Give the backbone structure.
Amino acid sequence: MPDLKQELLKKCFEYAEDRIKSSEKAISSAKEASQDDTKSSAGDKYETTREMMQQEISRNESQLYEARKLKHALMQVQVEKQSDRIQNGSLIFTTNGNFFISVSAGQFKLENQTFFAISSASPVGKLLMGLRKGERFSFNAKEFEILEIQ
């Protein structure tokens, strides 16, 4: 099953890379748009458009920063490490879903199963950290029992 963990980690890296590329493309497009906009006879329109493009650039730079932080966090995840307690890099099978503790990257389907890539700082991640096989926890009015930790 370490291959499954490796595959999930790979999917998380792809997610982070997609976010980085998307942010970089949006920044580039906004910069081009602000440079292409020529000054109109109504000078205020030009200034308003430039300001809007600058806000767009700033928002996308912030998203780019967050995506790079996500990628950096993924580099710290050690999927080879085994433990009887849930930690970063753990793959957890429960009665109500499967979780991969890494970064919040959403849902992935692998080997006909659904996995949720979550951060240890997420609400569910905080509940899971340190638990062992057979232990239970409750989230959103659902009961979960840990069936297996890899």
DSSP finds three helices and six strands in the chain.
